[in-house]
């Protein structure tokens, strides 16, 4: 089964980089992808989708908020229990490969 996604977006905030070992780091960031949607009255409205991303690499670039990126990776569902409410939560993230 295929689970590959390629998407273009702009960084919502600066990339957070954490060293795991001397030769490997993990970068966490979010991107916003906008798409123009034509309304019934003929006007256009931008609709943004916000996507969390995780990238394991030894070649992390210092990317800042607003930078346009094209990423390819696979989707992964993260699950957790909300600490205050005890409610089960989940979200899809892109595990970046390139």
Q: How does the helix and strand content classify structurally? A: mainly beta
Helix residue percentage: under 10%
* Discrete helix count: 0
* Low-pLDDT residue spans: none
Strand count? 6
Nearest-integer average pLDDT: 89
The general outline is globular
Biggest β-sheet description:
5 strands, mixed, barrel
Defining traits:
98 residues, mainly beta, five-stranded mixed beta barrel
Would you kindly provide a brief summary of this structure?
By secondary structure, this protein is an all-beta fold. The protein has no helices and 6 strands.
Written overview of the protein:
The protein has no helices and 6 strands. It is mainly β and 98 residues long. The chain has a 5-stranded mixed beta barrel. It has strands at residues 5-11, 16-21, 24-38, 44-57, 68-81, 88-96. The chain is globular. A hairpin with a 6-residue loop joins strand 5 and strand 6 (88-96).
């Amino acid at each position: 089964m295929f689970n590959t996604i390629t998407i273009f977006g702009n960084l919502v905030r600066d990339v957070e980089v954490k060293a795991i070992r001397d030769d490997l780091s993990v970068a966490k960031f979010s991107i916003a992808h906008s798409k123009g949607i034509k309304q019934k009255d003929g006007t256009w409205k931008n609709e943004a989708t916000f996507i969390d991303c995780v990238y394991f690499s030894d070649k992390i670039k210092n990317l800042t908020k607003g930078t346009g990126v094209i990423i390819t990776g696979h989707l992964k569902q993260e699950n957790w229990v909300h600490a205050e409410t005890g409610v089960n939560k989940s979200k899809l993230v892109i595990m970046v490969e390139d």
